[in-house]
Amino acid sequence: MNFKLLNHYFKFSNQQKTGIVLLFIVVIALQLFYFFADFSQPYYSSVEEDQWMLLQKEIDLQKEEKLKTKYTVYKFNPNFISDYRGYKLGMSTQEIDRLLAFRKENKYVNSAEEFQKVTQVSDSLLKVLSPLFKFPDWKQNKTEFKEERKVFDKKPHYNKEKIVLQDINEASQEDLMKLYGIGEALSLRIIKQKEILGGFVSMEQLQDVWGLSPEVIAELNNRFKVVMPSGFKKIAINDASLKELSQFPYFKYTLAKQIVIYRSMNGNFNNIEDLSKIKGFPVEKAKIISLYLEF
C-alpha cells in the first residue's frame, strides 16, 4: 500500500489548521454550554399556594412536637376521676357519666373489677388503667360508713306543688325578674348570653353568666327548662371553615386553627372524644359543645 498517496490528504495549510482548531473549540464550547445551562422554565407560585405551603410546614412542626411530647401519669384514686382526666386516659363521655352517676349516690368503687362493672370500660382499657389505680383502705370501716349514711339519708318528704317549667329560651326579662335574686342587670346578662350562644342548649350554661349565685341558678332550674330553638342549626365540624369555627362562642381563633390543622392531618372527627384530643380544647365544656356540633 502506498502511504505517500494518503499523506497528500492529511496535508493542511496554516489557515486550514487554524480553522480546524477553532472548529474543535466551538464544538467543545457548545457541549459545555449544553451540559451546564439550565433550560427549565422558571416556576412562579401563587399567593394561595404559598399560604398552603406555610400551613403544611406548621403541620409538620406539629407532628414533630407530638412525637416528642411525653406524658407522665401518676397513680390516682379512680373514684375521683374528673371529666378532663377521663378524656386524657381514653374514657368515653358515657363511661365517665356512669362513674359520676355512681358517685352521686355516695358509693365508691373498691377494685379495678368493680370500676369496670360500673363504667363498662373495655378489657383493653382496663388493662392500661388498672396499674394506675390507688385505692384507700375503706373496707375496714365499711360498716361505720353504712351506719352514718343511714342517719344522714333520712330526710323528711314534703309534698311539692307541681310547677310547669317554662322554656328559658322564650323567657322575657320580666319573666326572669320574677325570681328572687334576679334584678334588671342579671336578667339582661342572661338574655345577652342567650343571644351570644344563639340559644341555650343546656341549663348548665347559666353557670357561665357572671353574678348568678348557686342559689339563684337552682331556682332557675326549678322554674325553667331548655327547649331546643326551632330551626337550630348545628356546626358541621368536618366542613366548617376557619372563620366559621372561630366565630363559635366556645372556640377562640387559636383553637379553631388547631382544629383545622388536626382535621387536615388526621381526617374527619367522628365524635366529641376525637375533638377533645386537641390541645387547648375546653374538655369541661365537652358535653355542651357537642350539642352545637354535627359530626
Folded structure, characterized:
The protein has 295 residues and is mainly α. Among the domains are: 78-138; 168-225, Photosystem II 12 kDa extrinsic protein (DNA polymerase, domain 1, Orthogonal Bundle), CATH 1.10.150.320; 235-294, DNA polymerase, domain 1. It has helices spanning 3-7, 14-36, 47-68, 83-89, 93-104, 112-119, 123-129, 142-153, 173-177, 184-197, 214-223, 242-246, 253-266, 272-275, 286-290; strands at 166-167, 224-225, 235-236, 293-294. It is elongated and about 135 Å long. The model has no long low-confidence stretch (mean pLDDT 81).
Main β-sheet: number of strands, strand sense, barrel status? Answer: 2 strands, parallel
DSSP E strands, number = 4
- The ordered H/E elements are HHHHHHHHEHHHEEHHHHE
- How do the strands line up in the largest sheet? 1-2
Distance between the termini: 96 Å
Number of DSSP helices? Answer: 15
Oligomer: single chain
How much β-strand is present in the residues? Answer: under 5%
Structural class: mainly alpha
Mean pLDDT: 81
Write the layout of secondary structure elements.
Layout: H1 3-7, H2 14-36, H3 47-68, H4 83-89, H5 93-104, H6 112-119, H7 123-129, H8 142-153, E1 166-167, H9 173-177, H10 184-197, H11 214-223, E2 224-225, E3 235-236, H12 242-246, H13 253-266, H14 272-275, H15 286-290, E4 293-294
Parallel strand pairs: 1-2, 3-4
Question: What is the gist of this entry?
Answer:
The chain is mainly α and 295 residues long. The protein has helices spanning 3-7, 14-36, 47-68, 83-89, 93-104, 112-119, 123-129, 142-153, 173-177, 184-197, 214-223, 242-246, 253-266, 272-275, 286-290; strands at residues 166-167, 224-225, 235-236, 293-294.
